[in-house]
Each structure stands twice: as C-alpha cells, then as structure tokens.
Request: fold
Amino acid sequence: MEKMQNIADKCPVDEIAAYIDGELDLEQEFALDAHFAVCRSCSFELNQQKQFLCGLSSSLKHEGEIELPANFAKLIVANAESTVSGVRQPSELYNAAFICAGLGLFVLFALGGDVRTTITGIYGVLDQGAVVAGFIGHIIFSVVLGIVIVMRSIATEFRVDVAMVILAASTLAASAMFVSRKILGIRRA
Reply:
C-alpha cells in the first residue's frame, strides 16, 4: 500500500497530454509507459483524455462548417474597443508613471559606469535637436510674419489696377518658368 502511495506522489499528470500529443522524446515515453503499467489513476486519466479527444474529433467531423454572422468582425472590433481600458483614472496615470520611473532606474543601473557618457551623449543630441527645431521655428515665424506684413500692406492700400498688375506679373513669371523647364527638359533628352 505504501509503495502505491509513493508512486501516486510521483504521478506525472501534466505530462499525459504531452504523451498523447506525441511531444515527448522516446525515453520519456518509455518511462510513462512503465508508469501507466503500475499506476491505475494515471492509466485511467490517460484513457479519459483519449476518450475526450476521440469524442471531440467525432463531433467536429459531424458538424458542418460554422457560419459566422455577416458583421462578425465589426462585433469583435466593437467589443475589443469597448473593453480596452486606457488612462482614465488618476491611479492608472500614477501606476504608469511609477512603472516608467522604475524602468528608468533599471536602465541607469544597467548602464553602470557608462551613465555619465550616455547622459552627455543624450544631452548633446537633444541640444542639437533643440537648435534645429529653433531654427526651423524661426524660419516659419519669419515667413508667416512676412506674409502677414505683405497682406496687411496690400489690404490697406488695395487697388484693383495694382492687383491686376501683380496677378499678370505672377502669371507671366510662372508661365516663363514652366516653359523654360520644358525647353531644358527637351534639350537634356
């Protein structure tokens, strides 16, 4: 009786499914075969799982193809979107900030002695990015300011004859540029 209890304590219940699926190597299969010969509960469990798989297989063979509703994908997407939880509560924001801070500390400890050079490099890249962003922002500001000044001066002294001259000159310049591009394109070919 004690021997049967020791065998039951060592029953590989988790490996029975792998045995049925053929996922075990030959040595493990032989060990389980020997165990099934001695252990009634494991051999019973093996038979139960085999019967379940046979029943499942036969029921799936007799079933026709399952028809899905026409709007099945829409229903799944709507359900998935409605159950997604974002940062809606202050506690979620706190948890996200805490996780980010923990990851930042982990990165600092992982870098070890290279922290100073890494931070200096990151600072240099950010500094250069800020300079480029400032330059682009200054250019955009200057262009917009120039357009506003021109529009304001045109609006205060609007005359139809001057507007027609500007429109005619712009059209002439655009057509001259277009024609010259076409002529240069023909010569290159």
Q: What stands out?
A: DSSP finds eight helices and no strands in the chain. The radius of gyration is 39 Å. Residues 1-8 have pLDDT under 50 and may be disordered.
